[in-house]
Write a structure and sequence with these properties.
There is one protein chain. By secondary structure, this protein is of the alpha+beta class. About 20% of the residues lie in helices and about 35% in strands. It has 4 helices and 11 strands. The longest helix has 14 residues. The chain starts with a helix and ends in a 21-residue tail after the last strand.
Length: about 200
């Protein structure tokens, strides 16, 4: 996928895509984040809350953490932070590639304007239970990073439920660090460190 995104970015540059109040309401950069208790996952910090469950997605071959899934009140959001250039956004290019890939896999994909800006609303092929699955793919460009979220469960189709999961997404802090990274590389994640 990174090669396809590189090709997409080579064709045109994208403005950053983020809510106007991103630097106040999130998702926040670590330089913008208030001092408070967080669950430290390396590239992400998560605000603990009552009823929130967290699962780390680990790549089988490398044992590397590649995503964090948060579940709350019947909805989920899978989070992945990516490095991005300082001057332009990558959510536009990533969105185009994800849309094309999902369509090739037989999903129905529609671009819509959501609570965070442009998002993809998708109906995936039926799973093991024979039922098609709905998801929303969201993204926000920050300073030198982009935070992608895949929303499932109730929030994929219910506008009231999506507001709650978007609040969880926006409370996330992205820790890009100062290490040079090529654009579109996954910002390293790790299991929570004991406080």
């Amino acid at each position: 996928m990174p090669d396809e995104i590189d090709d997409q970015l080579d064709e045109e540059s994208y403005e950053k895509s983020a809510p106007e109040d991103r630097d106040e309401a999130g998702p926040l950069d670590e330089a913008e984040a208030p001092v408070r208790p967080y669950i430290d996952l390396g590239g992400l910090r998560i605000v603990p809350r009552q009823g929130l469950q967290m699962r780390l997605e680990v790549e089988e071959a490398t044992k590397r953490v590649v995503a964090v899934t948060l579940e709350h009140d019947g909805s989920t959001v899978q989070l992945q932070p990516f490095a991005a250039p300082r001057s332009e956004g990558i959510w536009g290019a990533v969105r185009a590639v994800v849309s094309e890939q999902l369509t090739r896999q037989g999903a129905t994909v529609e671009e819509a304007d959501g609570l965070l800006g442009p998002e993809l609303r998708c109906t995936l092929q039926p799973g093991p239970d024979g039922q098609p699955r709905a998801v929303r793919v969201v993204g926000v460009d920050g300073p030198r990073w982009m935070l992608q979220g895949i929303v499932g469960g109730k929030a994929a189709t219910d506008d009231d439920a999506v507001a709650g999961i978007v609040e969880i997404y926006r409370s996330t802090v992205v820790c890009r660090g100062e290490t040079p990274m090529p654009p579109r590389e996954l910002i390293p994640l790790h299991a929570p460190k004991p406080a």
